[in-house]
Amino acid sequence: MQFSVSKTLKMRTSTGLVVDYADWSDKTSLPKQNNVQTKNITAKLNDLKSFVLREYNDDLANGILFTAYWLKEKISIFFERVEIGTNDNIVINYMAQYNELRKLGKSKKKTDQHYISLEKKFSEFQKFQKRIYTFPDIDKKAMLEFRIWLETKDKLMESTANRTLKNLKTVLLDARNNGKIIHHQINSFSIENISAIKVFLNFEEIEHIKNTPIIGNDLQYAKDWLIIGCYTGQRVSDLLAMNKGKVFTKTDSGGESFRFIELIQIKTGKHVTIPMHDEVEQVLLKYDGGFPPAFSDKEHSNTTLFNRYIKKVCELSGLNKIVKGRIFNDELKRNEIKETEKYKLVSSHICRRSFATNFYGDKRFTTPQIMSITAHGTEASFLAYIGKTSSDHALNTAKTFREIKELKEKIV
């Protein structure tokens, strides 16, 4: 089959059909109509011609790049020769290969899980749409349809749906870099950033929790771990693994001694040195210089119990202020943003976020100082973590400039 688009673009490839030369008409460039078999072949070729013309007009409107490979693909689709299980021009197949290659790299486990989840969700989306997507099929309209499906059918929150969409775009661009033809609209397709709601405990709330009488060993231990967490800034896996052997004393050049907690973060493998805050020292004194007991020998159970107990501790401490946050809806089986009592939004991660947010707000500490403890890789990721932007940075600098000006005026 030859398909001429212009003088410079002529696509030519085999249909894969075979006919005896004696049954071929050079005049019509079709089989002679002298038996049932040749008539069937002619009918197929005419249908193929109509199909290719329709596909060309549709793809022309969508800005698809035309090559001999395009024609070959269309012929394969028409005759249903596309091997769905192996053809890596089918998006879901490419995703599977992409995820396998990620396993060989040094990508983060959590990020890998996001892409595995994308593969599963896009497969379900295909079934819902009752079609199989190749790369040129995914244009802006298809991306928006996928996002709507994620929010309405898969019950994802808007921020999670947008993150999934960003991951899909990453896969599409990776395919483009590996020679696949993707729709031109994908290059400029932008996905809105939806900021997650950041819930943390301020210093006043932490002090209130500290001064609230708590009955019961498990709740008391949870309260103490919560205070330690808010002044050390570590993930729950590292927090609950702290022990006396990780406490060190270091002396500076002037002979002054300081105590630190040193650990290697389980998630990142980064070495972290945490200066011992006075509030942490006070807790450790209750346990002969050590840390509170664990709730379980198993890490997962330890975290689960800690989450359960600190919610109760915060409820008993009167953290009943109505705030907006993410709550799991048992009936709908999805997270929802709603207004509720603050203690219901408390989980183990509030320790790390409270530390980062509170000390970022204290001008006596630089951002790199705080990041050396939280071990965020970049300032951008740190600011995103606490819900700040570069404009917040600029505002803090502007306030400092004003304070300097006022101080100079007082001196004068």
3D architecture notes:
- It is built from 15 helices and nine strands.
- With 412 residues, the chain is mostly helical.
- The protein folds into three domains: 2-78, no CATH class; 91-186, DNA polymerase, domain 1 (Orthogonal Bundle); 203-399, Orthogonal Bundle (hpI Integrase, Chain A).
- Helix 1 (36-61) crosses helix 2 (68-78).
- The longest helix is centred in the N-terminal third of the chain and has 26 residues, at 36-61.
- The chain is elongated and about 100 Å long.
- The mean pLDDT is 88.
List keywords for this structure.
single chain, 412 residues, mainly alpha, DNA polymerase, domain 1, hpI Integrase, Chain A, 3-stranded antiparallel β-sheet, two-stranded antiparallel sheet, 15 helices
SSE arrangement:
Blueprint (H helix, E strand, L loop, with lengths): L1 E3 L5 E3 L11 E2 L4 E2 L4 H26 L6 H11 L12 H14 L4 H21 L10 H13 L5 H20 L25 H8 L6 H14 L5 H4 L7 E5 L5 E8 L6 E5 L2 H8 L13 H18 L5 E8 L4 E8 L8 H11 L6 H8 L4 H7 L4 H22 L1
Antiparallel strand pairs: 1-2, 3-4, 5-6, 6-7, 8-9
